[in-house]
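Morning - 2-oxoglutaric acid inputs below, output right after.
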Amino acid sequence: MAPADFVVEALRGEHLEAAARFLGAFAGPARWEDRLRGVAAAVARGEGGEVCGVALLDPEMGWEVHCGIPGLGSRLVAAASASAAGAAFAAASASEAFWARGFQAFPGLLAQAPLIREKMDLMMRGASGATSDWNAVNEGAAFVSAVDERGEVIPGRILKVQAAACASSAVLELFASPQVVERVRQLYEVLGQEAPKHVDVFGTKFFPMWPGGVSVHWHQDGHFFGTASPRIISCGIYLEDTDEENGCLQVVPGSHTRSFEHVKGEGLHAQGEWARPDDSDEILDVVVPAGSVVLFNSRLLHSARRNQHETRTRYSLHLGRFFAAHII
Ligand SMILES: O=C(O)CCC(=O)C(=O)O
Ligand SMILES: [Fe+2]
């Protein structure tokens, strides 16, 4: 059968379940169940109406095309992406999912991550001293010392750089890059309010997370920002591949609708105040490749695993908050 014999059509939300059933034959149904809300899709049917190919654009995962017929894959991709309804559906439903579950990962969004990682090394080499004040603010960048299990300062070991944008211009450039800002704008837009021309950024941090090191324990960023606003977006940029071994981010989906008590930490987390998920809470590892951006509601309960790897680091940058001033 020549490719011309196939009918390619963009799919709307109500047809996605059928697409998922079809995909189940290729990729396993479980994988698709929780991804359906955010996808734009196109399907190809043969003369008898049978499905012979599917292309899905998942805003979080990128494209997935299943089609064994030469030439049809690109037609499927074109149909899904050209469909204004499909594209808008994908963007809007991903944004809705963000406000419902409290976070969204954009894997590998920033190709410049390796270069920024080098710049962070330069920044660390330029450090003129470290402070043990975990909250150091208002004096430009502050290099904060890491502590050991007894809560004592480890000489020469940096836990984090506060106000990292003051130590390296690369930091703000990255947070203000069109790829990041556009996604933040989309998230605000779906709330039904006019999105501002720009979003404001506040507070920047860098964590080198050396082998054996930590960054943060369980918390809601709002606790440290001194606000309970449910509309502030926090941002993490992972400059290296992150996984369970080298200290990936962990989140409790949906927890941004709840309040958690924060109490003074102990041991490796002696500095700062931290919370605890409930025993019944689902804890999700956010495993992402280098250059990934994770946007999350500043009320979402999150943490980072300890870096258990013997040699790998886990460099990451964090933005205290994005906020669209007139909708807060
Ligand atoms: O290190 C991480 O992955 C998370 C950092 C964080 O939550 C923060 O800086 O507030
Ligand atoms: Fe945080």
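Note: The first strand starts at residue 7 and ends at 11.

O.
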